Known about the structure:
By secondary structure, the chain is of the alpha/beta class. The protein is 30% helix and 27% strand. The protein has one domain (4-176): Rossmann fold (3-Layer(aba) Sandwich), CATH 3.40.50.2020. It has helices spanning 9-26, 42-55, 77-80, 109-121, 164-167, and strands at 4-7, 33-38, 63-66, 97-105, 126-134, 146-150, 157-162, 171-176. It has a 5-stranded parallel sheet with strand order 3-2-4-5-6, sandwiched between helices. A 3-stranded antiparallel sheet has the order 1-8-7. The N and C termini lie close together (12 Å). The model has no long low-confidence stretch (mean pLDDT 92).
Amino acid sequence: MPEKVILTSDDMARALVRLAHEIVEHNRGHKDLVFVGLLTRGAPLAHRLAKTLAIHGAADIPVGTLDISLYRDDVSTASLQHQVRRTEIPVSVNEKNIVLVDDVLYTGRSIRAAMDAVIDLGRPRSIQLAVLVDRGHRELPIRADYVGKNVPTALTEEVIVRLMETDGKDEVVIVGKED
C-alpha cells in the first residue's frame, strides 16, 4: 500500500501553533510549564512548541527530553543495552505542570512509561499530554489533553511521523502493514 499523506509540513506547523496556544490557555499562562519530549520525535516537537510560544511573547519555557527505555514493559533488558539514552530535564519537576510531548498516541504504553519516569524524578503539580497524532487503539486508560489531529486507523496501518530534525522533511503519513 502506498503512503497516504495525512499532514503536510504546513498542516503540522498550524497544528503545533494551535497546540501551543491551547496549552497556555489551559494552564492560564506559561508559569511553571515544562515541556518534556519523549525521545525520539517527541523531543523536537517539544522544542518547536516552546519556540512557537517564545515567538508569541511567552517567556522561555524549559524543555527537556525523556528516555523511557528502562520503563517500557515490552522491551527485554538485553535489547536495551545499546538503546538507552539520556533523560535531560533542565529544571526540577516538583510542583511544575509537565507537558509530555510525543508524536503518535497509540496503545498508551509509552505514555504510561513516561509518567513513571517523570514521577521517579519528583512530584509534579500535573502531568499533561500533547500529541501530534492520536490514532486510537488504546490498551490503557490514557488520553491526550492536546491533539494535533485525530486519525482513525486500522490495526493493519502504521502512522509515520517525519520531522526535519530527524528525517529531513516534515510530514505525517499512513502506510498499510504487510500481513
